[in-house]
Predict the 3D structure of the following.
Amino acid sequence: MKPKVTMIAWNQNDNYVVTAVNNHLLKVWNSCTGQLLHDLVGHADEVFVLETHPFDSRIMLSAGHDGNIFIWDITKGTKTKHYFNMIEGQGHGAVFDCKFSPDGQHFACTDSHGHLLIFGFGCSRPYEKIPDQMFFHTDYRPLIRDSNNYVLDEQTQQAPHLMPPPFLVDVDGNPHPTKYQRLVPGRENCADEHLIPQLGYVATSDGEVVEQVIGQRSVDQDEQGLEPSILDGMIRQLQLQQDQRIGADQESASSGPQNGEGTPRRG
């Protein structure tokens, strides 16, 4: 097999260069002379993650599709710590990305199964309040483009960054309880009626009445003209309130002295 470099990274002070090769080896080089200093052995599949420690020039992190995460001392060519991303009942999960915290005491990784892995010192109690499955309800909402080729949210016709804070849902789109919704920036002080998940009942094509969680409507239901979901209504209400507030601010600004032309608001 012809060796190919899959990833490259300098250490914190740029004295060393680390390359990941498709034969599963990591190579440490002197960045000034180009001399090969160490071969780091441990990975069993290709490596696409190399992260240097934010202030310790000796430390380098590597992670790969084999589920292995290594902390290396690249000056000595030795492994300091090893983690294996084992997923119960599914084997290992390939690690796609890793980043150190600014203080260098923690690092976070994402894997092929959608997990966020956090490693570091201390206990995990601060993270226990977070549910196992956590997504924004807007993560998979369709986008469109307007006549100016700007991106808009299809439902609200607003630029995504101007939309109200999203709701937290699980992998099936079921909204989380109020205590989790308040973790979203911008929702800390929302009224309970804007945070509490609600259930509705709809009739299927064969006449059976089933319970439905907000945010789980099908295209067929929309085409049949059924009552819109509570979540969609809440989003429209929040968007309307935000538009009214912006409009009031603009009116008050326009009533004052004008020093130049204002920037037109995109419809």
Summary: Residues 209-228, 259-267 have pLDDT under 50 and may be disordered. The chain has two domains: 5-127, 135-213. The two ends are 57 Å apart (CA to CA).
